[in-house]
Amino acid sequence: MAGKITGEFGAHGKRGGEAISERLTELAGLGGPKGFHARVAYLTKSAAGQAAMVAAGIDINNKSTRATVLKWLADPEATTTATYRRKLDQAYETYRRRNIARSLKKRLNNNGRGTRVEVHPLNQGGVLPSRQRELEVRKINIRPSHWDRLVDQWAAGDIEGMNSEWDEIAEDTLGSDWGAYTEVAAIGFGA
Prior knowledge:
five-stranded antiparallel β-sheet; about 15% strand; single chain
């Protein structure tokens, strides 16, 4: 289950894999200000991009749809319906994730050293003081083998797999208190 988690006593956060997915998405520049025309151009440059369009429901093998796509390419000011835009955004994100995964792995593996991350614990602002746990920001190093699996799962859109991988990382690196960090406010890292 993806989304915000509210604990029994009012703590707020999200699963660790989801937090990593959000950060990878930021690093990849997905969901940013890239315009409609730029996305269409990016997707139509290669057979794999066109396949992503077809998989998202834009049948470029259909004569009418192909003419529409050519119109989009010819006019940088072209717009489309909300339905086509959603499909195009889905195709762009899927294709971009696949293309950027290799670069992200290389940067996060850091020549075999892995990457240091900051794990920000759940937000306990809504929890009564007597019920709050003493949790602090933890800094850990994630090994390259974990990054490879996390990035592959992110590229495939497998949030549950990322959550399981995060649980394994937390258990291996955070000691006996690891269970308190399976849900977090954020996980920060650069690449």
